[in-house]
Write a structure and sequence with these properties.
The chain is α+β, with helices and mostly antiparallel strands. Helix content is 44%, strand content 21%.
């Protein structure tokens, strides 16, 4: 009888251990599933929040932030050209755009301008070239351009706000912007015709 009781106690002990083990596994599974769905919920909410709060443009695969580096959405601006017409960058969405920051007092800009014009004459059906004069009056720019016959658009940034927004520290400086408004290449310094063509390829593919 004692042996039978001992066996019963031993079997009962094993059952309790098995029940505890099963219960432990069940609790771990429940916790794991709960954590998974909680993380999914949090990530989903964070994604929605970021979509609402980050300035940029949505594509099928990415969220683009506004900035002045390659891969950023180029900062928007509105400036008047030498004829008094207002040009807004965001309204050019769907077109390839080159922004060229310059000034009449810049010797390297004077070297680059004819190269830009030659490029523009060969590509004016495919690209918008905006040459943004920094910190000078309209009359100064007009006097400088007289007789030069440049065909691209000249914009006046007399208070240099746009140049500051683009973090332009020296000139000439150019931004090559694709049809979605994203900067794909940046040139620091005067470009030759061949160099302009090379940079242009980054927005014409």
């Amino acid at each position: 009888m004692k042996n039978n009781r001992f066996k019963d106690i031993k079997i009962s002990g094993k059952k309790r251990k098995n029940i505890k083990l099963v219960a432990s596994i069940a609790i771990i599974l429940i916790l794991g599933i709960s954590i998974y769905f909680l993380n999914s919920y949090v990530m989903s909410n964070q994604s929605k929040s970021n979509s609402q709060n980050v300035s940029g443009v949505n594509t099928a695969d990415e969220k683009i932030q506004v900035g002045t580096e390659k891969g950023d959405l180029a900062p928007d601006f509105s400036l008047k050209d030498i004829n008094g017409n207002t040009m807004t960058l965001s309204k050019l969405r769907g077109k390839k755009v080159i922004l060229n920051f310059w000034a009449t007092t810049c010797p390297y800009c004077k070297i680059e301008m004819p190269e830009l014009n030659k490029f523009y004459q060969n590509h004016k059906k495919d690209v918008v070239l905006l040459a943004i004069d920094i910190g000078e009056e309209k009359s100064t720019v007009e006097n400088y351009l007289e007789g030069k016959g440049y065909g691209f658009t000249i914009l006046i940034d007399s208070d240099a706000k746009t140049a500051i927004n683009y973090k332009v520290q020296f000139i000439p400086m150019s931004f090559f912007i694709d049809e979605k408004g994203i900067t794909r290449s940046i040139s620091n310094g005067a470009m030759t015709y061949d160099e302009i063509e090379k940079y242009y390829q980054t927005i014409s593919q």
